[in-house]
Design goal:
Chain lengths: 450, 450
């Protein structure tokens, strides 16, 4: 069962440099820009997703807090310089040796919703110092936002029932830790991942697996009762027993025989979960175990969770589909130069247009709180007030003159996310494929309201 | 362009403990097993995939080498123990404090092909020491094998043309490094990820992005020529110029004006790549730049690569679809207890059956080398010889009495993978959906050949 959650992420001690988590071309571009005198030109880069994954109605910003931590370790020591030296000249390695990001970053707070074009991050500074952060920023935001966006749909489908994140084994071992964090951000109750508890204070959960039941096999065959007895003796009667190793109704009967009707929970990890949940509930009730919870797991995603809404399920365990973004394993965010020396710029290629000029974002809400439109304005533009609609600034200062602005704890971001979800128009919560729930309007640079 | 490759992975200095990259239930199971006296029962666990991703004809084992490195850092120090102490008793924390894996591990060498049920890893030792490795082993193998399996299809579709891995920005920052390694294992030429070069010796590649061209914008507008001039001055005439920021044929003309017909390459990152490649090739030829290479990138996967086979493309850049496993972001491997004290065991649940008993794997090849069948035998079983078929043992010793057996370098594993691909029946290389290219036959424990 979950343990209490700390309020602030703690940075792992002695973190190694993150500077090489970078695409080589950032470095060769900096070399050329230093040589031709453009390295310090004032620039604005923006991070945004051109579109949401097919049919998704909203995205959730994840990873901002983690990115700011990792940026503090973005330093080139002699070890890092040695790796890149052969494709750089001395001027560039010197520049990297003294590199500290000195610019400003604004962005959507973690947990906020985003839509196509939303400037989730806006980075201002010299060309070289900004372009250098591209890969790390995108890696963190694309991964964590993909997981957060999938997780939010699962939380919403679970309709208040708690979800345990248990997908570590299905994704890269470090991505697993970030996935547990992103899931918690969007309302998951707990995680199986121990490092996520240490690093990010996510409440931990976990009891036992089929292996433990199978371990209790002797020359006379399986001995489920002895496995259950051992687990209850050690972890207490409030533990959750896994009842589907052999026959489920035998498993439930044995569980209550061993633990009594005060047993905390039973877990079912296979089969037709809806049918089984009903059978198991009725069996538990008939044995007097009215308060024994039913935990279900096994290839659950938001659709399967929604399909179980009417069934007597108390808790979900979600793994694979969470850590793989439920079909959308990356958020598709890009990092684009939008302004050079005050001049709006943009690539013109087909299907990959971006909107020139630095932007800020305002969301319009009815007095009920419902979001009706997101407006992207020129950075110093204003939007005339409209009756009955409140304007909400979406971007907050994240870094000022290279220093991170103290930000919210993960628990606080979780609350922010919860309030943001409440502002979605009702159709935004539908799991079916649809359009983005909040339309985005762009006010181009130089227009009357710009 | 690629730099030379070292032959052995170097372990990052001062690696932190990997022991908490673990699901909590491994620890609570160990606690219960220590209490009831089953913790040291001799066990065999196996890692296998029940099935390949829909329509895939083979899988590629990736991550074995990386897993063995990470296992060496699987140690509980006081810091790690403090995190887990509240759900454990003193006996368990003491056991963890002194934990060293003392068992044996055998498995498929990295780069080898696998099929449904292939025992990719076989772990033998006491229950507690084996169950503890479950999450880390699965995380590494599921991620790296998913990427390797997708990458192999891309390599095969590219038909000898080199592929640059450039997907770092679309996946978790640490998964990116592992993805670059897995792609190289299966034949990719190089990576954009600098840390993959340091950590695994993958050759590096990268020149410049649209931002560099856009940076060269003045009050009079875009100045592509000045961006190209700067890049050529700094990186040399063998560099690759990105020609699609504005108009591609103007871009190509400018590139050759600036660099001359000796220009190394041009990259096209958007649009209809086949049509554009033909146009650009003919334009380059008309300008005398017969040896200037054409690099294409932009949402490529194995199908898009195959569709470009007849076009004048010299090199591919692949990003998103590689790091997300081209639709299959996890390999679906599980870690199952198959034997306790010499007794074969298995869960009996629907759709999640596993095959009881420790297994070893033999692949049968015709004298031409083509693989025709994979046979899973009881651990000490033998297979009677069949005329015209050679038996090849698939599993190699990876760990003996807790110590890693010195293994092949990544370059050597890359060669092994290349030879394994040659043994696939011809239909195995088809990109279309199909059955596993090599059928797997199971000889159950106790049968006559067992």
């Amino acid at each position: 069962m979950p343990s209490p959650t700390p309020t602030r992420s703690s940075h792992p001690p002695g973190s190694p440099s993150t500077a090489l988590l970078t695409d080589k071309y950032e470095l060769t571009m900096i070399r050329a820009a230093l040589a031709d005198g453009t390295a310090d030109r004032p620039c604005v880069f923006e991070v945004f997703a051109r579109r949401l994954p097919a049919g998704r109605r909203y995205g959730v910003v994840g990873g901002t807090g983690r990115l700011l931590e990792r940026l503090e370790d973005f330093r080139f020591g002699e070890q890092e310089l040695a790796v890149v030296a052969d494709s750089l000249d001395e001027r560039t390695t010197d520049w990297l040796r003294h590199f500290r990001f000195t610019g400003d970053i604004d962005g959507y707070p973690e947990g906020e919703l985003f839509f196509p074009g939303s400037p989730v991050l806006s980075i201002r500074g010299g060309f070289a110092e900004c372009v250098l952060l591209e890969t790390l920023a995108l890696s963190v935001l694309n991964h964590d936002s993909a997981i957060a966006s999938a997780a939010a749909r699962m939380t919403s489908a679970a309709h208040g029932r708690p979800i345990i994140e248990m997908g570590s084994r299905r994704t890269h071992e470090e991505a697993a830790v970030a996935a547990a964090r992103a899931a918690y951000l969007t309302g998951f109750a707990s995680t199986s991942n121990v490092e996520a508890t240490r690093r990010h204070g996510v409440p931990s959960a976990g009891t036992s697996a089929h292996a433990f039941t199978l371990l209790h096999t002797g020359p006379e065959g399986p001995d489920e009762a002895s496995a259950f007895r051992s687990q209850v003796a050690t972890l207490g009667v409030d533990t959750t027993l896994l009842v589907d190793t052999y026959d489920i109704s035998r498993g439930v009967a044995t569980a209550i025989e061993v633990a009594g009707p005060e047993l905390g929970g039973v877990r079912i990890d296979s089969g037709d979960l809806g049918v089984l949940a009903r059978q198991v509930r009725s069996q538990l009730d008939s044995l007097g175990a009215h308060r024994t919870r039913i935990v279900v797991s096994g290839d659950l995603d938001e659709y399967a969770i929604a399909a179980l809404r009417a069934e007597p399920v108390d808790m979900y365990g979600v793994g694979t589909r969470l850590v793989t973004g439920s079909g959308a394993p990356t958020a598709g965010m890009v990092y684009k130069l939008v302004e050079v020396d005050g001049i709006p710029v943009a690539k013109r290629s087909a299907q990959k247009e971006s909107l020139p000029g630095a932007k800020r974002a305002v969301r319009l809400h009815r007095s009920s709180g419902t979001a009706v439109e997101e407006v992207l304005l020129p950075w110093s533009g204003t939007l005339p007030p409209e009756p009955g609609l409140n304007q909400r600034e979406l971007m907050v200062p994240l870094v000022r003159a290279g220093s991170p602005v103290p930000g919210p704890s993960l628990s606080r971001s979780r609350e922010l996310h919860e309030s943001a979800m409440v502002t979605l128009p009702w159709e935004g919560l539908a799991l079916s494929e649809g359009e983005p729930a909040v339309p985005v309007r762009v006010v181009p640079p130089g227009s009357s309201t710009g």
